[in-house]
Structure formats: structure tokens, C-alpha cells
Specification:
Immunoglobulin-like; 8-stranded parallel beta barrel; about 525 residues; Alpha-L-arabinofuranosidase; alpha/beta; single chain; TIM Barrel
């Protein structure tokens, strides 16, 4: 059996853990809006056509925040055509995903759905085809008390009180060549636009905070210079920068998935360094915070690729100019037209998502917002008729519930492995990972409640590991429970018919003697150790 060790001490603090670190991202592609969120033919549909079974299940999880309504979609969305009586709304083409947007789910439905799900809406404005005035009007319609055209129109449309949306994203992935009205060629121009738009939005509502885009992929050849030029223009007027990263691994290299934490670490550290450089350069007293508001780790087969591009992607590589491509009109009751994520290797993909969450805890002093792409489906799996709990539901809700207070440094000693370079497609090409730790961990200390929670992944696909956890710095604390989750069958997946194939359970064999915890971690497992102060 392999052996690993870890040390924790209450004095080695990283920073306060934000209550919005474990949120989700929503965009009308696949089934998440059409089908799961909205289906007026569903037996539980409410008066707005929103599935009550879905938003009530999400409410039970305590989901803190959702970034909406997109995504690439939002760079061409005209929010003003999505409000008022549905029969008067305008149908447009979504140039991002080649679909009709009838605006059955409009501005008000998105925000009212968030209210029904008991979660905070983080709203993304259109800075692709949209304008500064559109963004300011959106804040006025959404947050202003009354007495103006837009605020009174909100009241007329059925929402008497302001929505009080606190956080606003200034566009989406504005550097991407795939983005509608991309600012790829003019980072300074986007920085100035973000600066001026943020000012105008805050003049409408001084209580809000804003998030500016930086490079939406570390693979693009303008990274990180694009980010630097943006930050130099808007640093003084915005509160966060928006980070996006997706880490895929091919099915034949499953260990590459959990090695992806290194890619996230590198990306986050680079952006923190850029922010602090600009802070010094412009002599600002403000410390920029980060929002990792789109992220994901997934097993994905290799596609067509051209090796050696090194980020030099052009617009024609993203399906923009494919002859014969047609627009699709989705019926939310017909799942045959909707794209749904595969559920194979569910436990491994759950660990991939959890691994990124641990990285966010490692940087809790700077990352204050996190929105998992696919996070809604992770918390509440759906099909045309049902909702149920997939494997990812359990680590996700445990992080929401117990990753509170202050993040602590975790000093881990364990076996490591290397992953050779690989390519998935023209965008995702990795040079390899070295010294990947088989044990990944993070810890949260809630001192006032006398609670310490340690989250641990054993990423080894073949071996159990004996973990020695030194908690002698927590004298007077007692182990309350060790929760573990793993799958004997790597192809196992929870379904509506069999929602119990992968479940967490208590490990009663774990012991603490003289301040040293000893636990056996199952291969490819998720583990939670909860301690209580006896003081």
C-alpha cells in the first residue's frame, strides 16, 4: 500500500473563503435551459413554464450563485427584446450556437428562476454587439427603485421591487476569435470599454460590482499580454477579472484528468501576478480579486487537430463559416434535439471537478467567485421527466456546506507521476505535466463554530493509500467523521432508475491517536474529514 502524509496547523491561513466560491454557470445550450430549466409541458411546470422539480432540488443544495444568461450566447443577445408579454417578444438568431432564440426565457425569467432556486444571479451584459447604454439601461431596469422609464417598465412587467443584482460581468470571453464582436484584435479598446461601462453602470447603481474579461484561454497566443493591456485600462473601475479554463483529457489517459490541477494553478498564478504588477505600475491601493466563472474538467475523445498551432487559432476554425450549417429551433420537450453530456467515468469526472474546487480553496485569498460549467447538472441531474443526484452532487454540496471560514495550507507528501504531452484538438494542446501529486487536499477552518473540514482526493487509479494526517496543532479537537466516496466500477453512473450506484459513506475504521489521523483512502476516491473542537 502506498503511503502519504499531510500536516495542518491553524496558524497557516491562506484567506477567507467566499460564500460564492461554489456556484454554477448557465447558458442556453444543450438541455440546461431548454428542457431542464424551462419546459412548459412538464408536469411540474409553473406559471412561467419553469420546472419546479429542478429549481426546488437546486434550492435544497444551498447553491450560492449562478452566472447567467451566458456565455458566448450573450455577446449577441438583445435583452430588451426578451421582456414583456411573450407574444410581443422578438425571435432572433443565436450566432454563437446556431439556434433560434424565441426569448421564451427572457431577462425576467432568468432572474426570477434564480429567486425560485434560492440563489444569487451574477449577470453578464452584452459587450459584443451591445453598447454601454444597453448595459446601463439593463442595470436601471433591474435594480433601480422606480420613477424612470426602465424601472417603471420592470414594475409593469410584474416585478415591483428591484432585483438587486449585485455582480455584473462586462461581456464574455471578449478576446476569443469565436466570440461575436470579439475584441481579440484590440485589448486596449476592450479595456477602455470595460472601464467606461463599469463607471456608467455604477453611476446608475453605486452598490454593484463589476467583472472584466481577461484571456479566456491560456492557449491563445496573445495570452497573457492581452490581459495586461486590458488591466492597464480598467483596473481602477472594476472589482474582479473573469477567468475561464476547461481541461480535457483523452479516455486512454485518465490520469491526465487529475493532473489538470497544475494547469489551473499556473493560470491563476499568472493572472494574480498580472493584477499585482498593474496595481504597482499605476500605484493603486486596490487589490484585484478573481472570478473563475467558467471552468470544467472532462474526459473527451481526441478530435481533428493541427499540431504545432500553439494558440494561433483563427475564426474559421470555430465552425463559423461551415457551408450548409443550419439554425436549429429547439423544443424543450423534445430531448432528441438537445445536447447532453456523457455520464461515463462519472466518478473520475466528479474528481476532476472537485480537484479544481480544491485549487480555488488554495487561492481563497484572491478567488472570490467560482462558477462551474455543468454545475447545475452536477448538483441536480435531469432528463426529460426526472431529477436525481449524480455522483458530483455529493462533493459539490459538501463543499457548499462545509468549506467555510478560512482556507488553510495543506503540506502534502505523497507519490507523484508524470503525464506526457497530448492534444485533444486545435485549442487544447498540453505540453505534459510533471510531478503530479496523487494526493490533492484543501482544508477549511471555521473557528467560531469549532469546525475543521479537510477535503482529500486520492487520484491514484490503481492503489489505495495510507494517509497520516498530522493535526497536533488542533489540540482538544476530535474527529467527528470520515466520509468517503468511490466507485468499484469505473463505468458506474447514477441514473434515475439507479441513483445509488455511487454514494458517500462513513468510514468507521479511521482513527486519531496522539494528534495523528490514520486513514486508508480508496483508489480514485473523494474523502472528507470533519473535526469538532471540544472546547
Amino acid at each position: 500500500m502506498m503511503k502519504a502524509s499531510m500536516t495542518l496547523h491553524p496558524d497557516f491561513k491562506i484567506g477567507e473563503i467566499s460564500g460564492r466560491l461554489f456556484g454554477a454557470f448557465l447558458e442556453p445550450i444543450g438541455s440546461m435551459v431548454n428542457g431542464s430549466m424551462y419546459n412548459p409541458k412538464h408536469p411540474t411546470a409553473d406559471e412561467q413554464g419553469l420546472r419546479k422539480d429542478f429549481y426546488e432540488a437546486l434550492k435544497e443544495t444551498g447553491l450560492p450563485a449562478v452566472r447567467l444568461p451566458g456565455g458566448n450566447f450573450v455577446s449577441g443577445w438583445q435583452w430588451k427584446d426578451s421582456i414583456g408579454p411573450k407574444e410581443q417578444r422578438k425571435t432572433h438568431l443565436d450566432m454563437a450556437w446556431f439556434q433560434y432564440i424565441p426569448n421564451d426565457v427572457g431577462h425576467d425569467e432568468y432572474l426570477q428562476w434564480a429567486e425560485k432556486a434560492g440563489t444569487e444571479a451574477i449577470y453578464t451584459v452584452n459587450l459584443g454587439t451591445g453598447t454601454l447604454q444597453d448595459a446601463a439601461d439593463c442595470v436601471e431596469y433591474t435594480n433601480f427603485q422606480g420613477g424612470t422609464w426602465w424601472s417603471d417598465l420592470r414594475k409593469k412587467n410584474g416585478h415591483a421591487e428591484p432585483y438587486k443584482v449585485k455582480t455584473w460581468c462586462l461581456g464574455n470571453e471578449m478576446d476569443g476569435p469565436w466570440q461575436i464582436a470579439s475584441w481579440e484584435k484590440d485589448p486596449r479598446g476592450y479595456g477602455v470599454l470595460a472601464h467606461e461601462t463599469s463607471k456608467a453602470m455604477k453611476w446608475v447603481d453605486p452598490s454593484i460590482e463589476t467583472i472584466a474579461c481577461v484571456s479566456s484561454s491560456p492557449f491563445l497566443n496573445h495570452y497573457p499580454d492581452w490581459d495586461l493591456q486590458v488591466l492597464e485600462q480598467c483596473y481602477a473601475a472594476v472589482d474582479y477579472i473573469s477567468l475561464h479554463h476547461y481541461h480535457p483529457a483523452p479516455p486512454e489517459m485518465p490520469q491526465a484528468l487529475l493532473a489538470g490541477y497544475q494547469a489551473f494553478e499556473d493560470y491563476i498564478r499568472t493572472e494574480i501576478a498580472l493584477c499585482d504588477f498593474v496595481k504597482t505600475k499605476i500605484r493603486s491601493p486596490r487589490k484585484m480579486m478573481l472570478a473563475l466563472d467558467e471552468y470544467g474538467s472532462m474526459i473527451r475523445p481526441k478530435g481533428e487537430m493541427h499540431l504545432g498551432l500553439a494558440g494561433r487559432q483563427n475564426a474559421d476554425m470555430f465552425g463559423v463559416f461551415v457551408p450548409g450549417r443550419t439554425y436549429v429551433r429547439h423544443d424543450p420537450d423534445d430531448w432528441s434535439t438537445l445536447r447532453n453530456p456523457p455520464r461515463d467515468h462519472e466518478m473520475l469526472q466528479t474528481l476532476g471537478m472537485a480537484s479544481t474546487m480544491l485549487v480555488m480553496l488554495h487561492h481563497a485569498d484572491r478567488i472570490k467567485i467560482g462558477c462551474a460549467t455543468g454545475g447545475l447538472g452536477a448538483l441536480c441531474a435531469t432528463d426529460r421527466e426526472h431529477v436525481w443526484k449524480g455522483a458530483a452532487h455529493y462533493p459539490f454540496t459538501q463543499m457548499i456546506r462545509w468549506a467555510k471560514g478560512v482556507s488553510l495550507q495543506c503540506e502534502v507528501s505523497c507519490d507523484t507521476y508524470d503525464v506526457p504531452g497530448y492534444a485533444i484538438d486545435d485549442m487544447n494542446q498540453y505540453g505534459g505535466f510533471t510531478g503530479v501529486q496523487t494526493i490533492q487536499a484543501a482544508a477549511a477552518l471555521k473557528e467560531e463554530a469549532g469546525e475543521l473540514t479537510v477535503f482529500v482526493i486520492n487520484g491514484d487509479p490503481a492503489e489505495e493509500q495510507e494517509l497520516k494526517l498530522d493535526v497536533r496543532g488542533f489540540e482538544g479537537w476530535k474527529l467527528a467523521e470520515h466520509i468517503e466516496m468511490f466507485a468499484e466500477d469505473e463505468h458506474a453512473a447514477n441514473t434515475w432508475d439507479h441513483p445509488d450506484r455511487i454514494l458517500p459513506r462513513r468510514n468507521e475504521d479511521t482513527r486519531v491517536e496522539k494528534g495523528i489521523l490514520t486513514a486508508v483512502l480508496k483508489k480514485e476516491s473523494w474523502n472528507v474529514f470533519r473535526f469538532k473542537s471540544q472546547a
